[in-house]
Amino acid sequence: MIDRMELSFAATAFATAITIIDPIGMIPMTLSATASDSPQQRNRIVDQAVLVAAGIMLVMGLVGRPLLEYLGITLPAFMIAGGVLLFLIAVDMLFARPTGAKRTEAEEREAAETHNPAVFPLAVPMISGPGTIATVLLLVTLAHGNRAELGIVAAAYALALLVTWLCMRLSTLLLRIISNTGVHVTTRLLGIILGALAVQFVINGLVQTPLFKH
Question: Quick one: which of 14, 26, 49, 203 has the most CB atoms within 10 Å?
Fold first, then answer.
């Protein structure tokens, strides 16, 4: 039986995973990065990109919590820092601006020169950028070693990656169906959800600090 706390954690994990990766927003990114490739090459690049991103998330999920403990970073501090970072990304999503938390101008120039965009820029930093890594670390830390909640985090990101893979694989068809306007509208809606989640993370972090407990 899943209790109310686990249900709440699951809702937060799935919402965070989907909004931070933004599968719909990956549609024009995929087409742009693979503009000179054939459909078969594009599919191969998409497969590689999602696998690399999944590997990065898995590694960060495994080493993230011990790393934070080694550095002496408390959960409230990380929740506040992660919430602030996610809020900045959410603002960029709301105003349809390319976020520096995903890629910089220098990275965009380098991406234009690379022959295989699977690892860069699609896997890193578009799918598993700083924002995604921060949310993985945050959710794993919030699970406190609880196997059920760790399983929920894994399932949330696996589902988000599956949806992202489908959107990237079907990018040409989906862009025809929903158009650039639909992509922007969806990204803005996800930005609102991500912004609310970010504020909640900051509030939870502040509430758990010793200063606010007394």
Answer: 49
